[in-house]
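Help wanted!
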Amino acid sequence: MAELLRYRDDETVDHPAVTVDAFLDQSNANAVRIEPGDDARDLLPHLERVALVEVNFPAFGDGRGYSSARILREAGYDGELRAVGDVLVDQLAYMRRCGFDAFEPDQQLDKDDVQAAFDRWPDVYQSAADDRTPIWTKRHA
Amino acid sequence: MYQYDQYDQAMVDARVEEFRDQARRRLEGKLTEAQFTPLRLKNGLYLQLHAYMLRVAIPYGTLDSRQMHALADIADKYDRGYGHFTTRQNIQYNWIKLEEAADILADLAKVEMHAIQTSGNCIRNISSDHFAGAAADELVDPRPYAEILRQWSSFHPEFNYLPRKFKIAVIASDTDRAAMRLHDIGIQIVQNDAGELGAAFYVGGGMGRTPMIAPCINPFVPLDQLVTYSEACLRVYNRYGRRDNKFKARIKILVHELGAEEYTRQVEEEFAHLLEQGVEPPFAELERIRTFFEDPLFEAGASSDIDRSDPDFALWVDRNTVAHKADGYVSAVISLKPVGGIPGDATAEQMHLMADLAKDYSFDELRVMHTQNIVLPHVRAADLHALWTALDVAGLGAPNLDTVEDIIACPGLDYCSLANARSIPVAQRISERFAKTGKTETLGQLKLKISGCINACGHHHAGHIGILGVDRKGVENYQLLLGGSEAEDVSLAKITGPGFDEHGIVDAVETVTTVYEREREDGERFLDTYRRIGMNPFKEALYG
Ligand code: HEM
Ligand code: SF4
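Answered by r_m:
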């Protein structure tokens, strides 16, 4: 397991995340892990007790986790949203835009490459779960 | 034509640098081949049988002479002096070196072009009507809507790892020249009773191994919700499209398995939610984009008279020019289907010439057709003879639009690593045969489409006559299909029966045209006759 990249100031949750089923069963759980086939909307009634959501990417090509992340942010979730698993440099910027603010890749990523990935895009075309202003809004500001 | 501002340019430039960096990390071993492959695909780079292939996007098929010149220069500098125009209005180069790819992308960026998302499991280049802005029968120019969707889909953070590729076409006329209902999303701009414009959404069409015609899931999405509705369609697909089987991963399978009604219900639910999220662009952006697509300054009172005294010229005018919305103008089609040639190929010299002619005679604009030809959209009738003369000298004057010689063919076994059979030589033999017998003209409209395997890049399902290359015990074999159409009368072709070898298939095509000549009634196209009399008479003639 590689180092955790985290872009938040609050305390890290120090216990492991449980599955969605276990989370729904245990009314005191506050850390949950979403698998690609899980429906992120199952968590929405319980968001006030969640401090950490891990979204697992077993394979980087499976993009369901991007939708899970945005759905949680759109519902107002503001706790930690952590991408775990096959998380690679070239996916980081997209993930960040979908609302992820922490990354726990299976493999250690090169720090400079990570920074370059986040600095890459001068602007964005569309709105997502981050607070960047899309180009089409800037054009008419 | 749309022009980049500093934002568009900065995004394309950033993409070039990103790709350079990715290629460097691949060389340094920081990226495995499996990790690098989807990244290069999203920049249009395929590894083919002999070399890398680069697919360059031509958004909604529109380009100017400067861009066409640049495409020609790339063919000369980095390839073997030619390029191949594709059925999705793009251009492909067949002989690319990976080490040079970033430099090509940089050359493209200088003329506001790119290869972004021309491959891979993401939203691909958006295609449109090749006569957009010129056609006498269009409601409005569909390209502003395609452009706004281009921006929305470029680097979309949620939809870059879809279950499978995703193709969108936008049209705005009841005549479908873009195979709209054979796309993952087909959009037709329509008008409601109140005179407002909106978008009819057709979702879940496609060709490939399981061809399907897209059902209409919403007949009228208001234009100020176009992006939001598209986002809803994509989100449902990204979440629930199948990922367990590559062959079942396209949205058509999801729509089919859920049923159009249930898919629509889920989209509408997501749409209602997304309307609250403010993802729609400001309407002023659509208005800004529209200003780029205003009519050029057509000459008022331009004469429609054409001197038809030269019969070769007159034939070309009849075949290759199409009615225009402005008096005294036509759209002129440059056929890339010379008899015996490779469908869709053009040499660098030909590209330079087409660019020059566009500048002289067509307000500096060209279009790529999904039938792999080039259009000069706005030509004065008075200039047609000069235009034709220049084309004819360069081998670009074939008078065969929509005839049996105007064949769509995929690259097939000559280039493609997935192919079962060659497509190009079959196309060449067929056009030679019909040119020799002189039947091309009398057969009228006859759309013939060839794919080298079940993936259907050559649209064989949508051919009035389709040909599908298969592998029969290690030998190339060709199945014949009849009755398809990609137009507004869309239908899927059916297989006639056992396949044919390379020579047999050419004879078989001739045989079915003979049945048509015998059976046709006044004004019927091949397709109409087939629809009226059915498969049997053709089968009898073929298999006796
Ligand atoms: C030579 C390299 C090529 C490869 C490896 C390739 C691969 C494929 C594959 C695997 C499919 C099936 C996808 C599916 O059903 O999910 C497909 C479909 C398609 N390809 Fe290609 N292709 C190539 C070249 C082309 C070219 C040159 C064109 C345009 C002339 C093209 C246009 C299309 C179209 C229109 C479809 C079918 C429509 C659809 O259902 O999306 N492809 N291709
Ligand atoms: S239809 Fe098959 S052979 Fe032809 S280009 Fe597509 S994948 Fe290759």
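OP: Thanks! One thing I noticed: Strands of chain A lie at 5-6, 18-19, 31-34, 52-57, 80-85, 102-105.
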